[in-house]
Design goal:
With 228 residues, the chain is mainly alpha-helical. It has one domain. 72% of the residues lie in helices and 5% in strands. The radius of gyration is 24 Å and the shape is elongated. Keywords: Cell membrane, Membrane, Transmembrane, Transmembrane helix. InterPro entries: Pra-immunoreactive, RDD.
Length: 228
């Protein structure tokens, strides 16, 4: 007996698969990503040194914050460092996302169109992807479903939230591909899946706190007289 899969089991399954693909993307492209990160580190260090120097020069010259900001905007060395950070960050972000999308496509299509009819994450949650009529979803429509997921993201996740609507509970990309996600496990959402979602929430809070501390440390480093 199958029933349409609910939003939270689908989210838990997706996040498990996303973690697997993200880890593989990071490991396989590690030499490239580390090079971009090193370029960003050098750029940020140069920005901190140059900002501190300009601040000191402005304080000694006229004790005028307006003069400090004018010097910041006109300083070619600072512009060069900002450009280095921007280029490295853009290359890291775009390169990683493209690699993730390509690897994710292979992972999704191979699993959904294969004998499991589900990714490992969906299989762990007792979910299965099928055609709208209940038959097997072929590789072509599995690929269309994966690509259609981009529209769900571009609609600020409204396409994903459509899966809340009963009775079909089909997301936008399911509808585009003529697919559905069924729950084949009558026991429902397991406790470990709720714990996994809770862990993600804690990780998001920790990342926010870390970012705040990192920005504070960067500002303090820029104002440290030892850097002048």
């Amino acid at each position: 007996m199958t029933a349409p899969a609910g939003f939270w089991p689908r989210y838990a399954a997706w996040s498990l698969d996303a973690a697997v693909v993200a880890a593989a993307t990071t490991v396989l492209g590690a030499p490239l990503w580390s090079g971009y990160c090193e370029a960003m580190r050098r750029g940020w260090a140069a920005i901190g040194r140059r900002t501190a120097q300009i601040m000191a020069d402005s304080a000694l010259a006229d004790l005028n914050f307006a003069g400090f900001f004018r010097r910041l905007l006109a300083d070619p060395a600072l512009h060069a460092a900002l450009g280095e950070v921007g280029v490295a960050f853009g290359a890291l972000l775009l390169g990683w996302l493209l690699a993730y999308a390509a690897l994710g496509a292979v992972y999704e299509v191979a699993c959904v169109a294969g004998p499991w009819r589900a990714t490992p994450g969906k299989r762990a949650l007792g979910l299965r992807v099928a055609a709208a009529d209940g038959g097997r979803l072929g590789a072509g429509r599995a690929a269309l479903r994966y690509l259609g997921g981009a529209l769900s993201w571009l609609t600020l996740n409204i396409g994903h939230l459509v899966a809340v609507a009963k009775p079909e509970q089909r997301a936008l990309h399911d509808r585009l591909a003529g697919a559905r996600v069924d729950c084949i496990d009558a026991r429902g959402m397991p406790a470990w899946a709720w714990a996994w979602i809770g862990l993600q929430l804690l990780a998001a809070l920790a990342a926010t706190a870390w970012l705040s501390l990192a920005l504070q440390a960067a500002l303090e480093a820029a104002l440290d007289p030892g850097m002048l």
